[in-house]
Amino acid sequence: xxxxxxxxxxxxxxxxxxxxxxxxxxxxxxxxxxxxxxxxxxxxxxxxxxxxxxxxxxxxxxxxxxxxxxxxxxxxxxxxxxxxxxxxxxxxxxxxxxxxxxxxxxxxxxxxxxxxxxxxxxxxxxxxxxxxxxxxxxxxxxxxxxxxxxxxxxxxxxxxxxxxxxxxxxxxxxxxxxxxxxxxxxxxxxxxxx
Length: 194
Fold this sequence. Notes:
- The chain is an alpha/beta fold.
- Helices cover 46% and strands 14% of the residues.
- The chain has a single domain (2-189), classed as SGNH hydrolase (Rossmann fold, 3-Layer(aba) Sandwich), CATH 3.40.50.
- The chain is built from 7 helices and 5 strands; from the N terminus they run βααβαβααβαβα.
């Protein structure tokens, strides 16, 4: 059995939902339906920043050897307005460490956006920050040889009916869309029709 590690924050953890509704659990359903010998392992921690993930990585890699490692961190960095260069440095370090320990593992990096309406009103440069933040993921994926998932939240961000009452975390239907966004990129790597 091969391992797919989903390493992320509350979006990965399935905040506010039963574990079976998280997108990694939905990916496992797709893997099972396709009779693929993979385990989808959910290592999502609500509230985690890229710095927190960097600190937590060693304990996760000591428990599970990834054949595929999907990194989905940075949303909390963006919501807190942390410097983009710090987020990039942390994500780069995580990807490099996985590659160092598991050189044959396939790396995926999930793209994220900062929703404009969650920033402080009237903050100068918010639009510029959101643009810079949103662009870091594809650039980093290219630089680090990771497969890019263009937008984890595509079709979900800003859609009230697909999010919990907090308007930040996907509901069960939203998590299904997250799974579809990931599967569209993951399935070809597994040589399965998406």
